[in-house]
Design a protein that fits this description.
It is a single chain. With about 170 residues, the protein is mainly α. It has a domain of about 50 residues. The chain is rod-shaped, with a radius of gyration of 54 Å.
Length: about 170
C-alpha cells in the first residue's frame, strides 16, 4: 500500500509540474506579445519625433529595400522557372528514350514473330507437299495392286490355276 500511495503522490507532482510548465509557456507568450507591442510603440514614438524629410528618406529607403527584394524575388523566380524548364526537358527526353526503347523492342518481337510465321508456313507447305506426294504414291500403289491382281487372274485363267482363297 505504501508503494501505491507513493505512486499517486508522484503522479500528482507530475501534474503540478505540467501545469506549471503550461503557465510558464503562457507567460512567455504574453511577454513576447508585450515586447512586440513595446517595440512598435517605441517605433511609433520615434517616428512622431522625426521631421518630414527624415520620414520621406525613411520611406524612400524602405521603398528601395522593397524594390531590391522584388528584384531578388524575380531573379529567384527566373532561376526556378529555368530549373523547371530543364526538368521538363529532361523528363521529355527520358520519356522519348523510353518510348523509343519500347517501340524498338516491339518491332524486334514483331520481326521475330514474322520470321516464326514464315518458318511455320514453310514447314506447313513442305508437310502438305509430302502428304500430297504420299497420297499420289498411295493412289499409284493402289492402281498397281489392282493391275497386278488383274494380271494374276488373267495368268491363272490362261494357265489353268484356280484361285482358292477364302
Amino acid at each position: 500500500m505504501h508503494k501505491h500511495g507513493k505512486r499517486l503522490h508522484m503522479g500528482s507532482q507530475n501534474q503540478q509540474s505540467l501545469t506549471s510548465l503550461n503557465s510558464k509557456n503562457a507567460n512567455q507568450e504574453t511577454e513576447k506579445q508585450q515586447d512586440q507591442y513595446e517595440i512598435v510603440q517605441q517605433s511609433f514614438e520615434n517616428s512622431m519625433q522625426m521631421n518630414v524629410k527624415d520620414h520621406i528618406d525613411k520611406l524612400f529607403n524602405i521603398l528601395n529595400k522593397i524594390k531590391d527584394d522584388l528584384k531578388v524575388s524575380r531573379d529567384d523566380m527566373n532561376v526556378i522557372r529555368e530549373e523547371l524548364h530543364k526538368m521538363k526537358s529532361n523528363q521529355y527526353r527520358e520519356e522519348d528514350q523510353i518510348t523509343k526503347t519500347l517501340l524498338s523492342d516491339i518491332n524486334k518481337h514483331n520481326n521475330e514473330l514474322n520470321k516464326q510465321k514464315i518458318d511455320t508456313q514453310t514447314v506447313y507447305g513442305s508437310l502438305n507437299m509430302q502428304i500430297s506426294s504420299l497420297y499420289c504414291d498411295k493412289d499409284f500403289l493402289n492402281g498397281n495392286t489392282t493391275k497386278v491382281e488383274l494380271d494374276t487372274n488373267m495368268v491363272e485363267t490362261h494357265v489353268g490355276f484356280r484361285r482358292v482363297y477364302d
